[in-house]
Design a protein that fits this description.
The chain has six helices and twelve strands. With about 280 residues, it is an alpha+beta fold. The protein has one domain (about 5-284): Porin. The chain has a twelve-stranded antiparallel β-sheet. Helix 4 (about 65-80) packs antiparallel against helix 6 (about 205-220). It starts with a helix and ends with a strand.
């Protein structure tokens, strides 16, 4: 990322080719997220991705949590463009609702607009569609920090080859189920992997949301729930989340009904502190 998008403060319209290229070693590249439109003056960005065709549960339900990665990327970029000069953006909340059918292999397009921004932060709205169908929405709320506190020199980063597409959920999100969890809780180890990290070295917010979805579906399966699909994911990011050294995602079913179920989940750092708190709702 460079040029007008880096400068902040309402830059002029930019071109995708010249001003927004994903790091080859990134979750965006692993998911093959593509940018088709960036209009910084209007606060509008469009990106797309194909829904992976693998799952961690026996039900083999499509991973709509990966759509949250798309929402975080495109929504976060819109907020990033809107930031004042000499500031940086950090996501504090991500909320996604899926109201239509999203199947493995579907090409999901996320079109984002800036809803509001002030000196303290920004809020964006993304509409997801598959073909002509609207299948859901997401909001991303970001706050602004002094750029000096999170300085990143993209030009100094070495050239790297693009990462290959993942062949499993575990590889995609750098997670591994931990055996021996009790009382219906599901625990997924957050494994070190630079691909799932953001520019500051913390686990990408969209990856946290997608991994939480995996843990939540596992908790529902462990609790004997009927086959369900995730309808909403709401995540509050409380502090930076760093993978490894015992860091993990934990989920427990709060209520399992015949047609709707609710799961509470957390991303927990190596020090035992909660880095992200979430609620996942699923429907039969």
């Amino acid at each position: 990322m460079s040029g007008a998008i880096e400068s902040g403060g309402g830059a002029e319209a930019v071109t995708v080719e010249d001003h927004y290229v994903f790091d080859p070693e990134s979750i965006e590249t692993r998911l093959r997220i593509r940018t088709s439109n960036v209009e910084s003056a209007r606060g509008v960005v469009t990106m797309s991705m194909r829904v992976p065709d693998f799952s961690m549960t026996d039900e083999k339900r499509p991973m709509v949590g990966t759509v949250a990665v798309l929402g975080d990327v495109v929504g976060g970029l819109v907020n990033h463009i809107a930031r004042p000069a000499d500031t940086w953006t950090v996501t504090s909340e991500l909320s996604m609702d899926i109201g239509g059918v999203v199947a493995a292999g579907d090409e999901v397009v996320g079109s984002t607009e800036l809803l509001t921004a002030d000196a303290g932060g920004a809020l964006s709205l993304t509409r997801f569609r598959v073909g002509e169908r609207c299948v859901g929405v997401a909001t991303v709320r970001s706050f602004f920090l002094p750029a000096a506190s999170v300085a990143i020199d993209y030009d100094a980063r070495p050239e790297r080859a693009p990462v290959p597409e993942a062949t499993s959920t575990e590889e995609l999100l750098a997670i591994q189920r931990v055996a021996g969890a009790k009382d219906g809780e599901v625990v997924l180890a957050a494994q070190p992997d630079s691909v799932v990290g953001n520019a500051m070295g913390f686990v990408h917010g969209g990856v946290v949301a997608a991994a939480i979805e995996c843990a939540a579906l596992g908790a529902l399966e462990a609790g004997g729930a009927a086959p369900m699909s995730v309808g909403s994911i709401r995540v509050n990011y409380l502090r930076p989340f760093i993978a490894g050294d015992g860091a993990c995602y934990r989920a427990r079913a709060e209520r399992i009904g015949r047609s709707v179920a609710s799961v509470v989940a957390n991303a927990v750092g190596a020090d035992g502190a909660i880095a992200a708190s979430a609620r996942v709702t699923a429907y039969a």
